[in-house]
Amino acid sequence: METCKQCSLEFEITDSDQQFYKKVDVPEPNFCPDCRQQRRLAWRNERTLYRRKCDGMGKEIISVYSPDKPFPVYDSDYWHSDAWNPLTYGRDFDFDRPFFEQFEELMHKVPQIARSTVANENCNFVNQCGWCKDCYLIFEADHNRSCIHSNNIFDSRDSMDILRGIKNELCYECIDCNNCYNLKFSQDCNNCSDSWFLKNCIGCNNCFGSVNLRKKQYYFFNQKCSKEEYEEKVENVSKKSITDIEKIKKEFKEIIKKFPQKYIHGIQNEDSIGDHLHHTQRCLECFDVNNAQDCKWVFDSRNTKMVYDMTVFGGKGSANEFCCDNHEIGGGVRNVFYSDQVWESCHDIYYSKLVGKNSHHMFGCIGFKHAEYCILNKQYKREEYEELVPKIIEHMKKTDEWGEFFPAKISPYGYNETIAPIYYPLNKEEALEKGFNWSDYESPPLDVKKTIPADRLPDNIKEIPDDILSWAITCEVSGKPFKLVPLELKFYREHNLPIPHKHPDVRHVERMKSRNPRKLHHRRCMNKEAPHDNKDSSGHCLNEFETTYSPERPEIVFCEQCYLEALD
């Protein structure tokens, strides 16, 4: 057992872990898996946006960096252009100083990219977003059209308030739903349409308030109805006010508890442990991973092989291989270590940031494309690079820096600007005590004609005036004001939905809390009438598993065999 350098808790490095570290030639970690993940998350600002000036062109832009940051920030298109050269900022390595100190100085000189965006149209208020059109406040998203207030949404259109969805249309307030049409207030559903309040359903249409259905039609709270009966029952359920919606949500949560839940969310996994896994083999302690093999401690990623400790991305095409302790890498990269935002077929990259497009053999570099053999943004010949890098590594071993991701204290963000608090909540005092940064910057107030408390809004969307677009609505939970945009108001009206009383950030946090925490518990199947031979004399299933459902939770948790048998 090892002792974490950050939290002092013990953690295990297995024989297979040692083999991986030896294979990629990096040291074993000194931080536990949670502290490693928390540190990487402290380098990820997905959702906090600011207005500021582009330091290259002088125009007003939207950026993940507040105006008080100590480094230049360029508009995304300008950053990707040839208007500036990262080699301009190159410097010699100083063996009398720690590496991280020198890297921080370089980071404060090299222009940072305002937002991670590519090939979007009319999508000014988005981040980690590409190939989208007419979208607003969507994050970690690709190939969407007319989507609003959503995270991790792909190939979707005309949808709002979605958390993790693929190929959805006309959907609202859905979590982990894919290939759905006109689905509302649902979770963990696939190929469902024209339905409300579904959980763990596949191939269903015209269903309401139901759980664990497969290829069903006209079900109302898990009871089969005729078409006429169903339509009458749904019509009699009032859904026009926020009070109505919240009441149904509360009732539906209690109904869900009566039905068994599968111990893991995902399909076609072999020898894998984690949650929300799809098409994986031998992936351990991984979460929200698709199409991966031989990975460990990987989060929010796809198309990865032999990768340890990666937070976000993975690429849509070629697999990423032999990488360790990175934030946001992808697109066919390999041999990338302890780096932040490295994309597009790069290889042999160490301790670098914002490097892409076939760059290779980079150490401590920032802002390069199509580059090779650079250290701290200075160009070297191959022989010089290969001679100097081992010396820098030896120096970093002496300063106790080698083998660790960038420290939280040099992150360009305050802890409260990142997504880290969603998984590891800390107040300002706690964050600073643990070595994280904190941002006290406050954006200017919204430019509005008037402000209205959310609870004073008319219940019925038909009573909402057009000039609501010029008002600020005060969130009933956080007290934070928010505005509607025309596309959003149009969606509420077309779907006869009430205007939310909560700020988009509050709604996002609530959706995140609807998913299980990324913490595993060893449990036994709760089925007392097992349909297979692996059971005790009383019929209780003996199958055991690792699950994100903690023993204290009220859900009935089944192994996969028992769950499939119990489906309606």
Tell me the Rg in angstroms.
Answer: 25 Å
Number of E-type strands: 37
Distance between the termini: 45 Å
Shape: globular
> Mean pLDDT, nearest integer?
96
Largest sheet: 13 strands, mixed
Number of helices: 12
Portion in helices: 10-25%
List the quaternary state of the chains. Answer: single chain
Strand content: 25-35%
Helix- and strand-based class?
Answer: alpha/beta
Low-confidence stretches: none
Walkthrough of the structure:
Among the domains are: 2-39, no CATH class; 137-262. Helices cover 20% and strands 33% of the residues. The chain has 12 helices and 37 strands. A hairpin with a 6-residue loop joins β33 (471-474) and β34.
Briefly say what this structure is.
This protein is of the alpha/beta class and 568 residues long. It has twelve helices and 37 strands. Strands 19, 20, 21, 22, 23, 24, 25, 26, 27, 28, 29, 30 and 31 form a 13-stranded mixed beta sheet that branches. An eleven-stranded mixed beta sheet has the order 7-8-9-10-11-12-13-14-15-16-17, sandwiched between helices. Strands 32-33-34 form a three-stranded mixed beta sheet, with no helix packed on it.
Describe the protein's topology.
Blueprint: E1 2-3, E2 10-11, H1 15-24, H2 33-41, E3 50-53, E4 60-63, E5 73-74, H3 76-80, H4 99-107, E6 112-113, E7 117-118, E8 127-130, E9 136-142, E10 148-154, E11 160-166, E12 172-178, E13 181-187, E14 193-199, E15 205-211, E16 217-220, E17 223-224, H5 227-236, H6 242-256, E18 260-262, E19 266-270, E20 273-281, E21 284-293, E22 296-314, E23 320-330, E24 334-337, E25 340-343, E26 347-350, E27 353-356, E28 360-363, E29 366-369, E30 372-375, E31 378-379, H7 382-398, H8 420-423, H9 428-433, E32 450-453, E33 471-474, E34 481-482, H10 486-494, H11 504-513, E35 521-524, E36 544-547, E37 556-558, H12 560-566
Parallel strand pairs: 5-6, 7-8, 8-9, 9-10, 10-11, 11-12, 12-13, 13-14, 14-15, 15-16, 18-37, 19-20, 20-21, 21-22, 22-23, 23-24, 23-25, 24-26, 25-27, 26-28, 27-29, 28-30, 32-33
Antiparallel strand pairs: 1-2, 3-4, 16-17, 30-31, 33-34, 35-36
